[in-house]
From TrEMBL:
UniProt protein name: Diguanylate phosphodiesterase
Coiled-coil regions, chain positions: none
Pfam families: EAL, Response_reg
Positions of the Response regulatory domain: 10-132
Top-level taxon of origin: Bacteria
Keyword Phosphoprotein listed: yes
Organism: Chromobacterium sinusclupearum
Domain EAL: 142-396
């Protein structure tokens, strides 16, 4: 059902063929998440004149058009200052469209997706859903300066929030991922917090050590009150964390104090490390492994982690956003599954986790490509730390229960 309380989303559709324009407009009418207002154009110049007036939430364009082609149109759109969402629909091959999408992102488009003709109405609607999920993730947060953030951490004036990780076949809880911090009802994702602290020496390390201690206490309670005694939790880290000497030694000592095994903590790295990175960064990656923690590669295909890092670093798990899975299937065909990735990077079968699973289509995609686990709004909403033990017990049962194969919805 369309919520009329929301402001309608404005779509601009550009295609030189009338039948295709009408088909796209028809398919857009199936998008029930928002009311939609559509402006159709066959002439790129007219579309650009309309864009000058502003107000569009999504631009949908073909590539192969007479006169001004889609690539030049996108470049002109960027020059006009448009930075919202772009959907490219074309008969060109997936690799070409991915390259054009990368060009669009480099020009400042905040969210770029593509569909290769022919495609289904279901795929079109799922892509729209994916676009607006991404746009919501990119909404600007209330500014939080470093001093305010450090004060919040030092005074324990926050709550943690965790995303549940589920097996995709049975929808069984297999762990949690630290989604971010909550203060006064406002949510701050971990990637935002890390980016704010990156410029202050040792600030990221202080936050990491403080957060790990909070997690250690939670893991003790989960082991004590539920049958999921080996519940793992992962935490995102960045290069600033890796530049801090002894940060993982300190995390290890904290876990020792609480009697928590290091294997129950995973550190997810999304930053790439080049040849000129500090030596202590590589030392810390080695420490993560020999201290017994798990090392996860995050945002595969979307973040800054280089392919060379994936080959060289001893990762235990690969976290792959659904959007990466989508373009992998387009670029590599039906053999683009998780098992192909595993062969490349020397990982075990259970080591590919799909992320950002926000609808049924993305869940089906992750399953079809062999991903064993996943997380996202469709699988389960984030859980505040005060409710984590109860949520785990409701799924796995108390410590005397024998089985925890209960679905999370």
């Amino acid at each position: 059902m369309i919520s009329m309380e929301l402001k309608p989303k404005r779509f601009l559709i550009l295609d030189d063929q009338l039948v295709l324009r009408k088909l796209i407009s028809r398919q857009a009418s199936f998008f029930s998440r928002f009311a939609v207002e559509i402006d159709e154009f066959s002439d790129p110049a007219e579309a650009l004149r309309s864009l000058v007036e502003g107000g569009y939430d999504l631009v949908i364009t073909d590539i192969g058009m007479p006169g001004m082609n889609g690539i030049d149109f996108i470049k002109n759109v960027a020059q006009l200052g448009y930075q919202s969402a772009l959907l490219i629909i074309s008969g060109y091959d997936g690799k070409t469209l991915q390259t054009i999408a990368d060009m669009s992102s480099a020009l400042g488009m905040s969210c770029t997706r593509f569909l290769t003709k022919p495609y289904s109405a279901e795929a079109f609607v799922a892509t729209l859903d994916d676009i607006f999920n991404e746009m919501e993730r990119l909404l600007p947060l209330d500014p939080l300066d470093i001093e305010q953030l450090l004060s919040m951490i030092g005074e324990d004036d926050y709550r943690l929030e965790f995303a549940p990780v589920l097996t995709l076949a049975e929808r069984k809880l297999s762990g949690f991922h630290l989604a971010g911090l909550i203060q006064n009802g406002k949510r701050y994702p971990m990637d935002y917090l890390l980016s704010r602290l990156a410029g202050r020496r040792m600030a990221s390390a202080v936050m990491l050590e403080t957060v790990v201690e909070r997690i250690a206490k939670l893991l003790v309670d989960i082991a004590r009150h539920t049958s999921f005694a080996e519940c793992p939790i992962s935490v995102q880290i960045d290069e600033a964390c890796l530049r801090a000497e002894n940060v993982f030694d300190h995390c290890y000592m904290v876990l020792q104090q609480y009697g928590v095994a290091a294997r129950r903590i995973g550190f997810e790295l999304t930053d790439g490390l080049g040849r000129h990175a500090d030596a202590v960064c590589f030392e810390n990656i080695a420490k993560v492994r020999y201290l017994g923690f798990r090392l996860l590669a995050g945002e595969f295909g979307q973040g800054a982690l280089a392919v060379s890092n994936l080959f060289k670093f001893p990762f235990d798990q690969l976290n792959v956003p659904v959007e990466t899975l989508r373009w992998m299937r387009v670029l590599l065909g039906e053999d683009a599954g998780a098992f192909r990735l595993l062969r490349y990077f020397g990982l075990s079968q259970a080591a590919v986790c799909a992320t950002r699973i926000d609808n049924e289509e993305s869940l089906a995609l992750a399953r079809s490509l062999g991903c064993v686990s996943g997380m996202g709004q469709f699988l389960g909403a984030a859980i505040p730390e005060g409710e984590l033990v109860a949520a785990t017990r409701s799924i796995w049962g108390s410590s005397s229960a024998a089985d925890g194969a209960v679905s999370v919805t």
